[in-house]
Write a structure and sequence with these properties.
The chain crosses the membrane at residues 25-48, 128-152, 173-193, 199-223, 235-251, 257-277, 318-339, 345-362, 374-395, 415-438, 445-467, 473-494, 506-528. The protein is mainly alpha-helical and 529 residues long. 65% of the residues lie in helices and 4% in strands. The strands form two sheets. It has a four-stranded antiparallel beta sheet.
Length: 529
């Protein structure tokens, strides 16, 4: 029998399926977001009707009040209380003559529609440049801060001090976060500690990393804590005081209610931050910004491995004392000496020179050339942050040039006119929430909106201080996330995505609006006149 051979038939095998790479959505950077917002603002000037209120401003040279009509006609009026009363501006004349009010105040009942004033897309670059020029004082302050950080960092003082601090806080890490948060809440409610708070990130980011926390905790303990304090301002001159003055009341009215709101808001926020920090400490993957953790740590983590870093010499201790003192002096200057950004920047430059001398000279000094280079490198590292602040102001420039800010204000006042007390304050809270995007400046919105909305409080029988509280709660709930506010500069500094920050902050934004609405509704009934 013939032997047969069977050839092996190849069994077809399935080709491995190629996994399609899913394109992951990447949230735009701070620059892109602001550019998009600027374009939207320009488009709004094409469709929203133009209009303005007459504006009132005190001219210190002539000692007169200057009134500018919507059509641009300027007239001078006697700077007397009688003049203000006749115009329906319920503000003490001393607020103008003393210099407390430096921005133009809207005159109630003077809104006029104007011919369309659309802003061209070609004007976008100009508005961005204008915003940078307008914010030059803040930008110089930030660059000088960067220079100070640079010269301190090159001495190795940060690494040595951080090494010593982490040993002492072992097991009690959140106490430092808690202390920073309470300080920022206090600074916010007392003096509106906002742009100045940018100075604290380079100090605290490396410390919080060493303690096992993430970028969200850094921003939460500084920006968000300060914002909570400012939201529930008690005596902050840039919101509570100036808004009360512009509303024709005194800031002490309603201060007990605002203080109560501050305590409640602070407790809720600190519990929320503690919950989040505890979760991140236990499991770093819980972090909302975990995907950027390595990049963040590489940017801010300090090298503690070398012997030089471990050696906490007297020279380094003196440098760190000067660095910490810079911020104490800054706060004292703002609160008691009337300092503003030029004075704060000058202080940072002065202390930078002192650190250069201490850290650059002597046997173990790093040398004059290295110190000067460190100042320049530190300043250049914060250029993107400084530019973000300027670009955000460019958005406001577009709305002003298009003459639509006052149109929105007039439409909002017409919307709430004649409502009952509780409904009135809740709607007003939401209106200020929206206006916070359009006018992110607390003092700017106060002098624009208070003279318009405060008289409406009289028509519904509620005290004017409730309007002030509604303005604070509403505007700052928006400023937790508004690209036109400070948050963009903060996120740019820490290279954090807006989506990560929004995931953390939205519960506090909702809390502020809901708690504010309930509290103001109760006040409108209890304190009805």
């Amino acid at each position: 029998m013939a032997e047969t051979t069977m050839e092996a038939v190849p069994i077809p095998t399935e080709e491995p399926k190629r996994e399609k790479k899913k394109r992951k959505f990447s949230f735009p950077s701070a620059f892109t977001i602001l550019f998009i917002v600027t374009i939207i603002a320009v488009i709004c000037t094409w469709f929203v009707p133009a209009g303005q209120y007459s504006k009132l401003l005190y001219d210190s040279e002539s000692g007169k009040l200057e009134m500018t009509t919507p059509t641009g006609e300027v007239s001078q009026l006697d700077a007397t209380q009688q003049t203000l009363d006749e115009l329906g501006v319920k503000i003490d004349i001393d607020q103008f003559t003393s210099g407390a009010i430096t921005k133009a105040v809207s005159i109630p009942g003077t809104y006029e529609g104007l011919d369309p004033h659309p802003v061209s897309l070609a004007d976008i670059p100009y508005s961005m440049v204008w915003g940078v020029i307008d914010g030059i004082d803040v930008m110089v302050f930030i660059l000088c801060l960067g220079g100070l950080i640079g010269v301190v960092k090159v001495t190795g003082a940060f690494e040595s001090g951080l090494s010593a601090l982490t040993k002492k806080t072992k097991g009690r890490e959140f106490l430092l976060v808690f202390g920073v948060s309470v300080f920022m809440i206090f600074g916010g409610t007392m003096c509106g500690l906002e742009e100045e708070a940018v100075a604290f990130y380079p100090i605290l980011a490396p410390i919080f990393i060493a303690l096992g926390y993430d970028s969200i905790v850094v921003v939460g303990a500084i920006f968000m804590a300060g914002s909570i304090g400012t939201t529930f301002s008690t005596v902050n001159p840039f919101s509570a005081v100036i808004a009360s003055n512009a509303a024709g009341t005194v800031f002490t009215e309603g201060i007990a209610v605002r203080a109560f709101a501050l305590v409640v808001g602070a407790i809720v926020f600190l519990l929320y931050l503690h919950w989040y920090a505890k979760k991140v400490k236990a499991d770093p993957k819980f972090s909302y910004s975990y995907e950027d953790r390595e990049k963040f740590n590489a940017q801010w983590e300090l090298d503690e491995s070398g012997a030089a870093a471990r050696e906490f010499s007297l020279r380094k201790k003196i440098v760190l004392v000067i660095f910490v003192a810079a911020f104490i002096i800054m706060i004292v200057g703002v609160m008691n000496l009337g300092w503003w950004f030029p004075q704060m920047a000058a202080e940072f430059v002065t202390l930078s020179i002192l650190v250069m001398f201490i850290g650059g000279t002597g046997k173990d000094g790093v040398g004059e050339a290295k110190m000067v280079d460190a100042f320049g490198a530190g300043a250049s590292s914060l250029v993107p942050v400084a530019l973000i602040i300027g670009l955000a102001r460019g958005v406001n420039h577009v709305l002003t040039e298009g003459m639509i800010s006052d149109t929105m204000l007039n439409a909002a006042s017409n919307l709430v006119a004649g409502m009952s007390g509780p409904l009135f304050v809740v709607c007003l809270l939401l209106i200020f929430f929206v206006l916070g995007f359009v006018v992110p400046s607390s003092s700017g919105l106060a002098v624009l909106a208070m003279p318009i909305f405060a008289p409406l409080a009289d028509t519904v029988g509620i005290p004017r201080w409730i309007i002030v509280a509604a303005y604070q709660f509403g505007q700052y709930a928006m400023l937790y996330i508004a690209p036109t506010g400070l948050v963009m500069a903060t996120l740019q500094m820490l290279d954090m995505k807006m989506s990560h920050w929004f995931r953390f902050v939205w519960p506090m934004m909702v809390f502020t609006l809901v708690f504010g609405a309930i509290l103001l509704s109760i006040c409108s009934v209890v304190f009805a006149v």
